[in-house]
Amino acid sequence: KYLKQDELTQECKELLSTLPTEKGWVASTFYKYQGFWHPCRHLQGILSCQKHFQAQDTDIILVSTPKSGTTWLKAILFALLNRTRFPISQKNHPLLSNNPHVLVPFLEIKLYLEQENPDLSSIVSPRLFSTHMPDVSLPKSVHDSQCKLVYLCRNPKDTLISLWSFTNKLRLQEMGTNSLEEASERFCGGVSMYGPFWDHVLGYWEESLKNPEKVLFLKYEEIKEQPKLCLEKLACFLGCPFSLKEEIEGVVDDILEICSFDHLSKLQVNMEGKLPSGENCNLFFRKGEVGDSKNYLSPEMEERLDKICKEKLDGSGLQF
Ligand code: A3P
């Protein structure tokens, strides 16, 4: 389904020839567009989305940095927003037979990648989409409408390890793997998928401070630590708080249970299935832990990342 270079629109081809480039993490070249690094097919999706996507006031968009737990939050959002239509206890709940990426499609790396201007009119409201696009690249209608953004990020060290491991699994065997030294070097230098990481995070952090009604800023670690509280906060933010009856009946716990790493990662669809775009679903479930980077990063790498993180986030009020 993915576009090849010769399937890019003329507009995209022309743009590519003007952009700074770097070596990509998986295969193709990275291009720097609006301050962030993308492979060319993602860029095509971003351009089409910027041009054609019309946000509605009731839309909910999950925005995340890659490898921050997007799959998890997609599942949670889907279960939360559809809890009346699909009660969690239902034997044929869609999450039991569909990978969360199928239920909550990416705008630029699915919908607007497969078609330049897809027809989204049959999707029932509230529409739930996701994206990794940085704030500066969001389609204008997203800013102009009252749609809500749920932003998810994760501490940079675990993000790096998850990204390094994920992209190595996507590389063709004959290409070999990227060393952690190289991956760490490039991540620190800002050259990673949708990087620089810090600019991505800071863009949405600032938006969430300016406009807390529109942007809810969440961290993977926070959800891990206080899942119930986060889910309740999410429900209030999205205008669908849990009723007392639901609280008593344990709906919050049920949603967290159905979306847990243990539950989702052991479902047949997620162990053996493939996404329509070809990736094995099990690639999205590795360990699902906080602090796993300790098992990989050398003290020097950790120190460097800590230092850069401190410098970049200095004065923002944001910490990892
Ligand atoms: P690790 O590689 O550290 O295990 P994304 O969904 O944004 O691609 O992020 C993938 C990361 O989220 C992986 O982290 C993956 O294991 C973790 N993950 C996937 N499903 C999860 C779940 N239900 N609960 C917690 N973490 C989950």
* Dominant shape: globular
- SSE string, helix = H, strand = E? HEEEHEHHHHEHEHHHEHHHHHHH
Instruction: Summarize the main sheet.
Output: 4 strands, parallel
CATH superfamily: P-loop containing nucleotide triphosphate hydrolases
Number of domains: 1
Strand content: 5-15%
Contiguous uncertain segments of 5+ residues: none
Bound molecules: adenosine-3'-5'-diphosphate
Corresponding CATH architecture: 3-Layer(aba) Sandwich
Instruction: Write down the CATH class.
Output: Alpha Beta
User: Roughly how many Å is the radius of gyration?
Assistant: 19 Å
Strand order of the largest sheet: 5-4-6-7
Explain the overall architecture.
The chain has 320 residues and is of the alpha/beta class. The protein has one domain: P-loop containing nucleotide triphosphate hydrolases (Rossmann fold, 3-Layer(aba) Sandwich), CATH 3.40.50. 46% of the residues lie in helices and 9% in strands. The longest helix is centred in the middle third of the chain and has 15 residues. The chain is globular. The structure holds adenosine-3'-5'-diphosphate. The site of adenosine-3'-5'-diphosphate (A3P) has 21 residues, from helix 3, helix 8 and helix 15. Adenosine-3'-5'-diphosphate (A3P) binds next to helix 3, helix 8 and helix 15.
